[in-house]
Amino acid sequence: QETGNPEVQFMRLDLSSLQSVRAFASAFLRQEPHLHLLINNAGVSAGGTTEDGFSLPFQVNHLGHFLLTQLLLERLQSCAPSRVVIVASSAHCAGRLRLDALGRPPPGLWPTFQDYCDSKLANVLHARELATRLQGTQVTCYAVHPGFVNTELFRHAPLWLKPLLMPLSWLFFCDAAEGARTSLHCATYEGLERFSGRYFTDCHLQEPWPPARDDRLALALWEASEKLVGLRDSTGSPSW
Hints:
Helices cover 40% and strands 9% of the residues.
């Protein structure tokens, strides 16, 4: 209604529920024969545990997007050239992935913030490994830092912290339209195919933090994520 575009359709998807992700993907694939662009944009910074037993930030920010991308990948390939854009964050520089405890809240004084940073590191590594696996398919992918955007990301922050965060966000953060620029750049700009798997900020290439360039860590995260979302069983066999 706001856009006046009758081609815009709303479909419910709750990334904190793997069942919801599967239901959405199934409904989408039945209804829509074409898919040329997937932007994994959702993100939360709240604590808590999902119905699947994972920490809320890590599931919503990484595992839900990982499963969604895998379920839609065949359609993206059949409609190639196509692109996947994964919205990460400069917060990935503070990420520390514990592969033996992936999806569980990290220890420390600020577990929710650390969990968010861990999920953002996972986003950058997801794009890196996805690009490796999609070489030669005409499906490319990009990780992006949108900038510090004044959205509702901090709506679940502790009450004592909100008086500090809210004025800062209004004074120094960009609005949502400005925050979408880099995502749209990677989604639409011609000639980016050779940069598949790379990290962008402010519509330009940028080298991410060293752990986000670790190909062995990217592969290990991929394999662990497959098991956690039920795409691979404990023996390592595909489980679709």
